[in-house]
Structure prediction request, 344 residues.
Amino acid sequence: MYAVARDWNGRGVPSARDHQRREQNKGLPGHERRPEKGTRWSVTPLRNMLRSPALTGVMMHRSEPVLDAEGQPVVWADAVLTPEQFAALQDSVLTEPGEGKPRQGGSRRTPLLGIAFCICGRPMYARDQKNRLADGTLRVLTYYQCRSLSEMDRCDAPSVWRAESLCRTVEQRFLDEAGDRSEMRRTYAPGRDHSAAIAELRGALTNLTTAIGRAVSPMAVEAFTQQMDEHVKTITRLEAEPAAPARRLEEPTGAPCRERWRAMEDWEARATFLRRTGVRFYCEGTHRSGDVHMYLPTTLRRPVHDVGEGEGVSGIECHDEGARRFFLGLRRAKGLGPGFWYAR
Prediction:
């Protein structure tokens, strides 16, 4: 993501906002044109754009697909990507090289970045605190703290947790809830809808009927009639086939999460696994007197034996939409406002 954003900025590719202003300014006199602000690409809007189902032509409202009366996503534009390409893109975004690894330049490692959040919604970052004991020994403790502690707009109750305590809590909560379940891999099954083909064949029948009325050769009439018969047979066959919407298929990836977790050597690998599954933890208070609330995606809420091979899941789900609803419900239950929502 950083490499793409850096390349686009270096080549002068206009950001989404500047591109929209440029399109709106077309055909307008100079005094009515809105100035381009020279906004630069950054990782977050680029990632959000690449993870939006809008790339498949789906209508979106507040980062959520708009559904029709039958609960299916409304497709209102030409797709930029096919469902298969969109699914492959999501796998690439979620397993981006370097995810969970320290950045260059000696910056602080934060394995749980994008997994652990303050109750206000901001990400939790790791920091080191040096304490000198009475015997002169220097002791370094690592904490996860709300990002607002390093910002001017500090939240009302920024969460601060000792790193080992938070990692222990995350491990315990995740294994208790999802240890016996298997990570689910989602694939797309293209829909089957012959309405366009049937409409095209009916139009062809109309044209052939007109052509027969104008034909003067018996051979031409016979050829048109045979073609019409073939079209009628095709229409009858297509109308008999049931329509099926595009859907996602869930398939277990293998061993239960508990076995996969124990096979991972460090928290870098475990954090990458948690990010890929979409798990989130919202922290409040401190490790001494606080709590951690876990969001578990629907793909991890059922045991393996409850999910049949190739079981369909209708609709196109935005990866973070379930987490967003959980976060807003958690804030609402505590009598708090909407907070700050961060999409990964």
Observations:
- Confidence is low (pLDDT under 50) at residues 98-108, 304-318.
- Residues 116-189+249-333 form one domain.
- The chain has three domains: 1-40, 116-189+249-333, 195-240.
- The first helix runs from residue 2 to 11.
